[in-house]
Amino acid sequence: MASPFLPALLASKGLSPSGIGIVLAAGTAIRLLAGPAGGRLADRSPVPRRVLGWLLIAASIIALGYLPAYGLMLLLAVSVLHAAALAPLNPIADALTLAAATVRGFEYGWVRGAGSAAFILGTVLSGFAIGRSGLPVFVWLNAALLFAASLFALILPHAPRPDPPRGPASGGTLSLLRLPWFARLMLVAAPVQGSQALHDSFAVIRWQAAGIGPEAAGSCGQKPCPRRCWFSLASAGR
User: Fold this and answer.
1) H helices of the chain, where?
2) At residue 11, does pLDDT exceed 70?
3) Which domain holds residue 33?
4) Does the predicted TM-score (pTM) go above 0.90?
């Protein structure tokens, strides 16, 4: 619901392109610390699903801070806090899903596939909602869905704690960085993720300036791109 249109919301609040870049980069940087910290907290908790649930509630409340915030410093603070609450969610959810899969016999791939389908559907629907109710509506939708997810997280069945990892990559971050294949993997992943970050940060803003509405922008963020989006982009190019 949020990721394609957050930069446009920041622009509507008066941030310059450099300010938007600072806010988004700071949110990404804090994830490097918050993700492992949240995962460790869940590892130490006797009921990891509660950690997931409380983080979702925190993310839901913090998301609403984008509505009243104006100016670089306030928006930067909201972005950093929101990213810190969001960062551990995927790793904890993945760990709980894998643990439950061994007990209940369902396929982990179906869970991730459903998540990808929800991402596509959410992006398209948020575009239509913005087209009808204005840009801030995605903030409310994002907060509502995060809160709904927290309710489901808190009622998840208890799953046994997975066995601790073993092998050369089980000794922590420093041990992982010493692996030659890991360094090569990072060299490949860094430009891929960097190009995606550059595109996602300013694509919707550029499309809006070219006269492409949020409905088309929400659909153009997906692959394969619907035919009407290609027509819109071609028209913008002319």
Assistant:
1) 6-12, 17-44, 48-63, 72-86, 89-104, 108-133, 137-154, 173-177, 180-209, 214-220, 227-237
2) yes
3) 6-158
4) no
